[in-house]
Amino acid sequence: EAGVAQSPRYKIIEKRQSVAFWCNPISGHATLYWYQQILGQGPKLLIQFQNNGVVDDSQLPKDRFSAERLKGVDSTLKIQPAKLEDSAVYLCASSLNREETQYFGPGTRLLVL
Amino acid sequence: AQKVTQAQTEISVVEKEDVTLDCVYETRDTTYYLFWYKQPPSGELVFLIRRNSFDEQNEISGRYSWNFQKSTSSFNFTITASQVVDSAVYFCALSRSGGGADGLTFGKGTHLIIQP
Questions:
Q1: B40 reaches A (C-beta below 8 A)
Q2: Given A43, A64, B32, B75, which is the most exposed site by the fewest CB atoms within 10 A?
Q3: What is the mean pLDDT of chain B?
Q4: Contact (CB<8Å) B44/A44
Q5: Whole-angstrom Cα distance, residue B3 to residue B67?
Q6: How many Cα atoms within 13 Å fall on the side-chain side of residue A18?
Q7: Residue among A36, A18, A24, A23 at smallest CA distance from A81
Q8: Nearest CA among B63, B29, B45, B59 for reference residue B109
Q9: Distance (Å, whole) CA B38 – CA A34
Q10: Do B10 and B110 touch, CB atoms closer than 8 A?
Q11: A100 at interface of B, judged by CB pairs closer than 8 A
């Protein structure tokens, strides 16, 4: 069974530019999560989807971050405009449903210069 | 509010030694779940174990074992006869639900270095 796929694996941009990350969850997983992991810290939840609906986006900086999961499968996380403090690894995770274990992708490492 | 503390930032041991990673948590919920994840250099978080608050039995899986003690709010992880491949960052996490439906609250992680 294929795991959670993410792309790109690495991205370098300058501040004020825009960037987008893509996630393809494990087949059949209804719940999808985006986390931000700053160097030296544990991951922090940004947003959670159940199918194509947002369940929790309370920690998403909505002035610059947006995410969608239009068809209830793939998801895209966007930052516009990026700031230096957005440099982090962005992890996508999925689970069969909200009561089941989350499985993580390899992450996208973002560096904002 | 939930909180997870992993006081050990980095541990370095020689291969074949036993090592214990500490995890202390805070929560006001009576029902909660505890997790351990491994993050190797590749960056992917690998699920190791999930435990609910009603099950205080210790668990052993090969060289891995977990000690859950509600009285001290701890969920420690021991690797017996460590191997170089065990080198990684290990995260303890807490959630109100089995799947972390409200999001997992992670500790800052313990970087484990196993020297040959």
A1: no
A2: A64
A3: 91
A4: no
A5: 19
A6: 9
A7: A18
A8: B45
A9: 18
A10: yes
A11: yes
A83 backbone dihedrals φ, ψ, rounded to 5°:
-115, 165
* C-beta of residue B5 within 8 angstroms of C-beta of residue B107: yes
Encoded amino acid at A89, one letter? V
pLDDT in tens, B36-64: 999 998 888 999 998 889 888 888 889 99
pLDDT at B104: 85
- Interchain CB contact of B109 with A (< 8 Å): yes
Whole-number Å distance between alpha carbons of A68 and A52: 8
Picking from A3, A48, A96, the nearest residue to B103 by CB comes out as A48
Question: Quick check: A89 contacting B, CB < 8 Å?
Answer: yes
| Both structure tokens of B92 | 């303890």
Q: CB distance B47–A102 less than 8 Å?
A: yes
Distance between CA atoms of residues B18 and A60, nearest Å? 40
> Distance from A24 to chain B by nearest Cα, in Å?
14
> Residue A44's closest CA among B3, B111, B25, B17?
B3
Query: Per the CB < 8 Å rule, is A102 touching B99?
Result: yes
Cα gap B5→A10, rounded to integer Å: 29
CB atoms within 10 A of CB A58: 11
| A106–B43 CB contact, under 8 Å | yes
Q: Which spans in chain B are helix H?
A: none
Hey, is the C-beta of A5 within 8 angstroms of any chain B C-beta? no
pLDDT in tens, B10-41: 999 999 999 999 999 999 988 899 999 999 98
